[in-house]
Amino acid sequence: MNIIDQIQTNYLRPNRTIETLLLWDEIDSNVAKVIYIYNYEGYHYRIFENVIELSNFLNNANFKLLSELSTDSEVYKYLSELNLNALI
Predict the structure, then answer these.
(1) Alpha carbons 28 and 7: distance in angstroms, whole number
(2) CA dist., res. 3 & res. 26, Å (int)
(3) 78 by DSSP, 3-state: which?
(4) For labelling, which of 27, 49, 73, 84 has a CA lying 20 to 30 Å from the CA of 37?
(5) Across all residues in the chain, what is the average pLDDT?
């Protein structure tokens, strides 16, 4: 299971945010990863592995998502169970 720490929230508009999160492994604290979540109106979440993919998404270029989810609980479950070693 991962520990989730919120680093920053940027408001693009009142109903659109970008959250920067630090995930780290509960067992091995040397394994950590920063990820980015684009939150559209609190019901549509896109999770990005790095700021380049997020920037590509915002600029309508080709991008790669880690996941696309629709509720807070789905996001929390996904982030808690994400294999950080596969991303490093």
Answers:
(1) 20
(2) 6
(3) helix
(4) 27
(5) 95
Distance CA 48, CA 34 (A): 9
CB count within 10 Å of CB 86 equals 7
Closest CA to 26 of 62, 53, 1: 1
Distance of alpha carbon 20 from alpha carbon 10, whole angstroms: 8
Tokens, residue 9:
């929230």
Copy the structure tokens of residue 12. Answer: 């693009």
**Residue at token pair 């996001």:** 75
pLDDT digits (tens, 9 = 90+) for 10-25: 999 999 999 999 999 9
Q: Under a CB-based contact definition with an 8 Å cutoff, are residues 82 and 75 in contact?
A: no
How far is 54 from 41, CA to CA, in rounded Å?
17
Beta strands in the chain (DSSP E): 2-13, 16-25, 32-40, 44-48, 67-69
Tokens of 19: 């959250």
